[in-house]
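Continued from yesterday's entry.
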Amino acid sequence: MKDNSILIVDDSPENLVALEKILQDPDRNIMKAESGNKALGLMLNHDFALVILDVQMPGMDGFETAKLMRSNERTKRTPIIFVTAISKEQKHVFKGYQSGAVDYIFKPIDPFILQSKINIFLELYRQRKAYEIINNELKHANKKILEQQKAVIEEERLKVLLQMAGATAHDLNQPLMALLGNIELMVMNKDKPEKLYQHLSRVEEAGTRISEIVKKIQGIHNYETIPYLDQTSITKKKGLLPVTE
């Protein structure tokens, strides 16, 4: 269906044909309805740039049709031009605008005036559609940026975890070597009580150091990364194991 779709609503077949002839254009899609009910049904299934609505119709008149359009999310922003042959008194015109019309045309219709008004509303419709496309593209681009940002943050998270793992290995290396070395010396000097006491004391010191490091590891809860244009800053929170040079 073309973007420049116009719905003409009039209970008179002759009026529908006359309006269609005035509005006919290769770039436009003209649809017709002979009642308010039929018009509402078409609007639920098609997107119209504009509705040209006759005021005087049996059953549901133009005013009622317009009010129902304005109460529906899909059709509430569709422009309505009322076409009428009734009194031009201000109270009737005001009722039309109160029902949701954006313009009023009185019969007999001047084709030039009608075409001029139609062109304005079609251009507004095209601009609105273009804005919607741009807005959707911006939302999509923003989503991609957020996804990329999340990936960068996750990469930085892994880098920090690797740094912490390296720092932990560095911190654990010395007390572990001391622990293993003194245990080996204890085996070698098992018959020398004075030396056994010295080695046992060093084993205890190494064990205490290992215990402190393990507590720091258990105290690591979380951290946050703050992305910038050309780098990512890591903000450490309470309990984070410091990196050892």
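--- second protein ---
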Amino acid sequence: MSELQTYQGPATMEKITSLAKRRGFVFQSSEIYGGQNGAWDYGPLGVELKNRIARNWWKEMTRLHDEIVGLDAAILMHPRTWEASGHVENFTDPLVDCKKCKARFRADQIPPECAAEKKCPECGGELTGVRKFNLMFKTRIGPVESDDDSAVIYLRPETAQGIYVNYKNIMQSSRLKPPFGIAQIGKAFRNEIVTKNFIFRTCEFEQMEMQYFVKPGTDVEWFNEWRKRRWAYYEKLGVKTDHLRWHQHGADELAHYAKDAYDIEYLFPMGWKELEGVHNRSDYDLTRHTEYSGKDLQYIDQDDGNKEYTPFIIETSAGLTRTLLMLLCDAYDEEKVADKGGEDDYRTVLRFHPAVAPVTVAVLPLQKKDGLAELARDIHAELREDFATGYDQGGAIGRRYRRQDEAGTPFCVTVDYETKENSSVTLRFRDSMEQVRLPRAELASRLFQEIKAYKRTK
């Protein structure tokens, strides 16, 4: 795929942010006070989408693997953790400020022509010299304020270290041995110099990480294997594969802990951006924690003459909120649906895979009267035991279909007068807008069948 390829789809960041607020996916944090930069709140549809993405990832990374287990580590960790990990020393960005307009920039992201002349890309004013800016949020713990460092603690900038410091506890309590993995979903915090592109880069976010512990010498094989598996995951979700590509980190990009690293990049409306990283972290992390904690974190291989070794780590790391933004962009479509004139000739639709759609099936009574609403409520109550369901009885049926299309609901069930006569309902498919009639008693099994067989066609 060409490096110069640019996004050509119907989604723009303006359309995505507008839809996200209008339909209750994402709101600006503290909006009534002018908003908090770099922080966002997830509304009714947004939190459902986020939770379903997380559950789908968790199933993929734990339930489908006998040798991968889960963890939920604390956000606050002993400060020595971040010295051992290298974050205190290395987790920095180059920072410059404009002396005139006071705007702040990452020095490595200033346009070359501005950097050469030390001019602000916003107002043309003079820039300060480059200084290092540590991205960790530092705070203090305990009831007494103190100027010394004894009370200093950090909000974790990543979830991985919680896995590393628990690795031996989990290995022993779960009776695991390499190769095995530990998965975790949790919040992380980074004091970003610049937050931009909606929820793509924020100060507070959630990560979905899996750390896979392997015997040295097998790390390259497992690294390649997890690259294949993670690419296949996005194919399984129906993500447009022509909007995905691999980017290998060059020598100047590799993190201090990495032996090799690849990013899965997605073609967002603002260009190619990192979606998920797959990293060979070598034995750096466990070696450093052994050194700083004084605890032996080696593995004793009883199947190989009790030889001891420090496992290498293969990491898969994806942002939950960044994945949500990717799915919004990937699912967004605008489609002409009729040849007749008028505004209703076009619809906005989110083509989410049913596995992650915030609402799987919506139940819609044709009318509120004549007992149709009560009948629809009964069907809704039956379906909600097994599916993420919605209910809408306001307005013309066509407009309700459009609202569900815009929310990404894959299936709608319409209850009408024929339902009263013979207990049949209409099942409507979001992507094709096809409608089929079927007995109410067969509705749940048909939905299960359609979800399992779902293939995105547009």
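The longest strand covers residues 204-214. The mean pLDDT is 91. Will compare against the first tomorrow.
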